[in-house]
Design a protein that fits this description.
Elements lengths: L3 E6 L5 H10 L5 E5 L6 H14 L3 E5 L4 H8 L5 E5 L1 H10 L4 H14 L7 E6 L10 H20 L2 E6 L2 E6 L1
Parallel strand pairs: 1-5, 1-6, 2-3, 2-4, 4-5
Antiparallel strand pairs: 6-7
Helix pairs in contact: 4-6, 5-6
Catalytic activity: adenosylcob(III)inamide phosphate + GTP + H(+) = adenosylcob(III)inamide-GDP + diphosphate; adenosylcob(III)inamide + ATP = adenosylcob(III)inamide phosphate + ADP + H(+); adenosylcob(III)inamide + GTP = adenosylcob(III)inamide phosphate + GDP + H(+)
Pfam families: CobU
Keywords: ATP-binding, Cobalamin biosynthesis, GTP-binding, Kinase, Nucleotide-binding, Transferase
Length: about 170
């Protein structure tokens, strides 16, 4: 069974940078599973910055919805795999028409796959539950879904970190 590391935190808190640093500790080759797509120019620019920062020791696999399947397919090909990020994956499933119980089933399927992995896995997710209660139903549904998904993944992970203002805090492991 491979080690599973879960990193959460707010927007621009340093969680992706921490995840990349931890992955580099396993040595190249490294796999990067990107769950977000370039839906607009600003997102395309973000993706380009992330790719440039990672460099050529990383192989990127783009997968917006079938996360457990892609992880099974690339297991053993890399020294470590980084998934960035869970909340974009959840958004993709939500906007594809899946409802919360189906999405949480997908999260549980993902966590049940952890013990089968041979490659260390680092998973990044946004913490979205620290702010005010959103005013609309979809935003509340997403906030609740992300919180439940993060709980499931954190419970199944070997190590858990949260980042605040660029500083990591180890919570588990």
């Amino acid at each position: 069974m491979a080690r599973v590391i879960f990193i959460t935190g707010g927007a621009r808190s340093g969680k992706s940078r921490l995840a990349e640093e931890l992955a580099l500790g396993f040595g190249a080759p490294l796999g990067y599973v990107a769950t977000g797509g370039a839906g607009d120019g600003e997102m395309a620019e973000r993706i380009a910055r992330h790719r440039a920062r990672r460099g050529d020791q990383w192989t990127t696999v783009e997968e917006p919805r079938a996360l457990a399947g892609v992880l099974a397919g690339i297991d053993g090909r890399f020294n470590a795999v980084l998934v960035d990020c869970v909340t974009l994956w959840l958004s993709n499933l939500l906007f594809a028409g899946d409802d919360s119980p189906l999405i949480l089933d997908a999260v549980e399927k993902l966590t049940k796959h952890f013990p089968l992995l041979t490659t260390p896995l680092i998973i990044v997710s946004n913490e979205v539950g620290l702010g005010i209660v959103p005013e609309n139903r979809l935003a509340r549904q997403f906030r609740d879904l992300a919180g439940e998904a993060n709980e499931l993944i954190a419970a199944a992970a070997d190590e858990v970190y949260v980042t605040f203002s660029g500083l990591p805090l180890k919570l588990k492991g």
